[in-house]
Structure formats: C-alpha cells, structure tokens
Amino acid sequence: MMKSIMPKDTMTKLNLMPTQKSVQTSKDSLSSISIGRKIVTLSIVVIPFAGIVAAIILLWGRGFGAVELGLLVSMYILTVLGITVGFHRLFTHRSFETNRIIQSILVILGSMALQGPLLKWVALHRRHHQHSDEHDDPHSPYNKGSGILGIIRGAWHAHIGWFFDPDPKDLNRYVKDLSKSNLLSKLSALFPLWVAIGLLIPALLGGLLTGGWMGALLGLLWGGLVRIFLVHHVTWSINSVCHLWGRSPFKTSDHSRNNFLFGILGLGEGWHNNHHAFPFSARHGLKWWQFDASYYVIRILALFGLASKIRLPVPSLAR
Ligand SMILES: [Zn+2]
Ligand SMILES: [Zn+2]
Question: What are the boundaries of each domain within the chain?
C-alpha cells in the first residue's frame, strides 16, 4: 500500500486540506462573472466539440463506424480515468491508497492522455490549489486585463495559452513526496513511451478488427488523435469553464464552479467547487445526482480490495 509521505503541515500549506473558510456554504456568486467572459470561454470549448460531432455524423459508414466509435469511447474513458483517478485524486491529493500495480496502470493510462509527465502534472496542479485564481495560479482565467480583450486573453490563457508560459522555477518542491518513489519517478520519465503506446493500441486494434491498413489508420485517427483532442478539451475546460460557469455552493477563496456538463464529460471532475472546498476528497460529486464516474471506479477498486483509506468530507458520503 502507498504511504502518505507528505507531512500534514506541508499538505495544509499546499492547500490540500480543507480550511474553515472553504466549508461555509454561500449563495451562488454567478453575478460576479461577466456574460462576455462566459461566452468567450464557452465558444472556445463548444465549437471544436460541435465540429467533431458533425464530422462523425457526416462520415458515418465512410471512415467512421462501430469499430472507430468503440475505440474512441473506450480509449477516452480509460485515459481520462488515468488522469482523474490516478494523476489527480490518487497522486496529487492522496485521496485513497492502492498497490504498486494499480499505481503503475494509472500512471501509464494518464500519460497516454498527453498532458505531460506525472511529476510535472502533479506539481502544476498542487500549485493551482495553492494559488487558485491568484497571480501564481498556472491557469486562472482571471487577472488578464480588463474589457473584452482581457476576457478573451483570460479564457484563452486558462484553456490553452498557459502551456506556452515558461515553467515556474520551483516546481520540484511540490512533488518531493512522489520523487522519493523510484517507481513513480521512472514511470514519469518514460512519458513519451506511454504516449506512443497509447497511439499504437488503437491503430493495432483498428487493423485487427477490420483487417487492413486502412483500419489501422482509422484506429490511430479516432482512438488516438481525435480521442486526445477530446480528452484535452475536456480537461482544459475544468481549468477554464469550471472557474467561470456554474454554481458555487461552497465559499472558497477562488472562483471554482460546479458545472453539470463537465461533471458528466470529465467523469466527475466538473464538480470543481466541491473539489476546491474538499481537495482531499476521493468523491467530487457530493450529491446523489452529481454523477462522478471516477469515484465509482475508486469504489469498485475498493470492492476488490484494490483501494483503501478512501478520504471523504464526512463518512456518510461513502456509498
Ligand atoms: Zn481549480
Ligand atoms: Zn485538485
């Protein structure tokens, strides 16, 4: 079982523990975000999705069919779970414990999502929690100037633009706990290999299932490239949309929001205000109707003895 190496005071400093301030309920403060800011972000996110759906409908039977849909959906779910259950809930926030085999599988699946190596992903996300919507937040949609230009700059920065910023100098200090593990350091360093395997698997399956090079090419396209595109947009929307659009039942020191659409598409990550209020919680969808596929996966792992010490805001939520 994985031990929590990070001391409690460090956890508190990194804002990975709840604060008194974060658990007070408040009225939704939607009014503090301008309609222009919401429209710009939603356009960046929704238009590419609409394009993919249109392409699928237009191409059905001519380069897209049941095999391609199966590869797209299964690779999407597996690699998003690598990020949400693995990179995020297990490694960043230590919200449960598991054995080395499940840890390794989660690092490999998360790496296939092409969002950077484990150690860097965790460091940046811990920094996001420490400085949410402040100057040192790596991907806040705020503080990018006023007026319509500031809004566009903020939405673009939170969604994609922040990748082009230089890395903060002190990232290593956020992952001292993970760096001590030989296994995790090695798996993280092998990031390019996992990405390549994540592209080869759908190509291979596409070729085998349809029996031809064209099938392999279509498998690579839909199960690889289109899947990565969709996974990217959904994950980035947690950074952009979920700090702009939705409800904030908990008063936190940032602009995090619960967003229903990304609760579904992000396999539970869209309940982002809940998450900022209780960063340590393995469960993000705290109400029965807040669909949280990643939490259900953690419960299934626990059922088979593969997850333990699952952390929740209150024990009664363990169902
Ligand atoms: Zn956030
Ligand atoms: Zn988090």
Answer: 46-247
